[in-house]
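Dig into this one:

. . .
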Amino acid sequence: MIHKPIYFGQKDLASTGEGFENDLLEKLLGEKPGDIRRRITEQKQIASEAVKRLLTLSGMEEKKKEYEQKKQDAEFRLRIYRDKGIAEKLQKQTDFDNDERRLKKISEDVRAYISTLSELVTTHEDELKNHTAYKSKQNTHFFSEFFDDYQKIIGSFDKVKAELDTIRDQYKFLQEKLSAFAGLKKTAADEFAHVRRRLEEELKSKGVNTLNIEEFPNLQKTVETAKQMLEAFRKQEEQKESVRNELLTALSELNRLWQQEFQFIQNELDRVNAKHSELKIHSAFKGDKDSFLNFMKQMFKGSKIRENTLQGMVNSYTDFIAIYKDWEQAKAGAGSSPEVFERYFFDNLGALLTWQTPNKFTITYREKELRQHSLGQRASALILFVLSQEENDVVIIDQPEDDLDNQTIYEDVIKLIRQMKPKTQFIFATHNANIPVLGDAEMIHSSRYAEEKISLKSGSIDSPVLQKEIVDIMEGGEEAFNRRKEIYRLWNPQN
C-alpha cells in the first residue's frame, strides 16, 4: 500500500513565483494539519454567526435618539396641559387608556411566548421521539436500560406539550377579557366626550386657542410608546454587549487555533531544517504583510481611502481582529476618512474578522533567499530537499535534469538516491541516462510513440534489451556513445 506519496514536476522545482514557498510547504505537509484546519473552519463559522447576531443588534443608536426626542417633545407639550389643569380633568380617560395599553401589551407578550414555545415543541418532537425506535444489535440490554431513563425525558416533553395546550386555552380567556374591557371603555366614551366638550368651552372662554383636547391622549400614548421602545433598546444594548463578548471570545479561540496551526507547521520545519545545513525554511506568524495589504485594498475598494493610510494600518496591526479590538484608536488612524473606514469595515465585518493574515515562509539556500539563486542552484537545492524527506515512501519526480548539470546530478542527486533506495521508492521520468544507470535503477520502462501508438519495454538495468534502449534513446545511439567515449579518452591528460 502506498503511504504518503509526493510528486514534483520540473515546474515545481524551478518555480520562483509568488507563494511558491507556501506551495512547496503544502506539498511537504500533505494532510498532516487536516485536523487543526477543520477546527479552524468550524471556529470561523462560530465567529461568523456571532458577527451576524451582533450586526442584527446594531444600528439602533439613531432609532434610540429618535424615540428620546419624541418622548421629550411629547412631555413638553403635556406639561402645558398639566399647567392648565387639563390633565387632572382628563385623568379618568387617561387611566382607561393606560389600562388598555397594558392589557394589549400583556396579550402580545403571551402570544409571543406561545409562539416560541410552540416552535420549540415542533422543532424537537420528532427528533426526540424517533430515537426510541433505535435497535442495537450488540448492546440490547444496555440500550434497554438507557431508554428507561430516556423515557423520563420524553415524559417531561409530553408534559410541556400538554401545558402548551392549557396555555392556549388560557390565552383565549384573556382575549375574551380584553374584549370585555373594550366594552367598558366604550361605555365610558360618552362621559369622556362630555368632559372634553366642557374643557374646550372653558379654554375658548379664556381665549386659549393653542391647545387641542384631542391631542392630549395622543401625547400620552407617544410618551408611553417611547418609554417601552427605550426600555427595549436598553435590553438590546445589554444583549449586544453580551454578544460582543461572545464574538471576542470566539475570535480569541480562532486566533489560538491559528497559532496552534502555525506551531504545528513550525515543529515540522524544525524537523526538516535539522536535516539540512545549507537549505532552511524560515517562518513568521501572520508575517505576510503584502497579502494583508492586498486583501485590505480589495475589501476597501471604492472607499477612496488612500493606499498609504491602509499601509499604515497594516504596519500597526497584525490582522483585522487586532484592528477590531483597538477600534477607536484604529479608526483615528484612518486619517480624514474615519466614517468611511468604519462603514466599509462593519459592512464587511464577518469576512474581515475571519480572514487570516497568511504566515510568511522564506526558503534560504546558503544563507541567501532561494529565489535569488540561479535556476540551476534553485533546482539543485529543492531536489535535494525533496529527496531527503524520510516520511514519503514514494517520491515521484518529472524531468529533474532540465535545470541541473550532470555533475550536480551525479555528485548530489545520484549519491543521495543510492543512499536512500533501501527505504524509499523513487520514480523518475527522465531523459538523462545518469539517473537510471548510475542510480542503479531496479526497473526501467522505455516508451516510444509512433503511428498513434505507444510501445513499452520494461526490465531491470541488467537487461540487455533495456541497456540498448538507454544507449539508443538517452545516449543518441551506440555510435554517439562510443564517439563520446573516445573523445573523453583523448581528453584524459593521463593518456
User: Anything to note?
Assistant: Strands lie at 5-8, 279-284, 360-365, 368-369, 394-398, 425-429, 444-450, 453-459. The chain has a mean pLDDT of 83. The first strand starts at residue 5 and ends at 8.
